[in-house]
Amino acid sequence: MTAQDIIQHLHLLPHPEGGYYRETYRAADTLETAEKHTRHVSTAIYYLLENEDKSHFHRIKSDELWFFHQGQPLEIILLTPGQPTRLVLGHDFSRGELPQAVVPANTWFAAHLPLRAGFALVSCTVAPGFNFADFELAERAALLAEFPQATELVELFT
């Protein structure tokens, strides 16, 4: 299948940070966060990036788990103290690719296809569940000030 076939078959929509997505699950149960916000216990989405699409640097207030389904390897870049951390989702374990990865809560991260060709289909689950009120898209100047060692990445993904 092509990326367009999958987008149509799974009814994916353009995502505000880049790529395509569709929410597939939102737990009926809720909880109260430390900030006194009510959130669903968990949520899940399909997420697809193709060719030169990228997920720009952003962060959310919950842990996010990524699960690789098919396509080309997908790189997730986390901005952490010191050097950025790179996680590659895929099926080639001999190359260090992972079938799943965790992005800790409040961590700036971005994603793309390192080969810039083809597509990657993944799922993401968030616990406590995703809410756009907990989503923050990075501002280039602020990220450059906080992570000067990652200037090239910040400029590429903001």
Structure, described:
The protein has 158 residues and is mainly beta. The chain has one domain (3-157): Jelly Rolls, CATH 2.60.120. The protein has 3 helices and 13 strands, in the order αβββββββββββββαα. It has helices at residues 3-9, 140-146, 151-156; strands at 13-14, 20-26, 30-32, 38-40, 43-50, 54-60, 63-71, 74-79, 85-89, 100-103, 108-112, 119-127, 135-137. It has a 6-stranded antiparallel β-sheet with strand order 1-2-5-12-7-10, with no helix packed on it. A 5-stranded antiparallel β-sheet has the order 9-8-11-6-13, with no helix packed on it. A two-stranded antiparallel ribbon has the order 3-4. A hairpin with a 5-residue loop joins strand 3 and strand 4 (38-40). It is globular and about 45 Å long. The model has no long low-confidence stretch (mean pLDDT 96). It comes from Hymenobacter metallilatus. This is Cupin domain-containing protein. Residues 4-138 form the DUF985 domain.
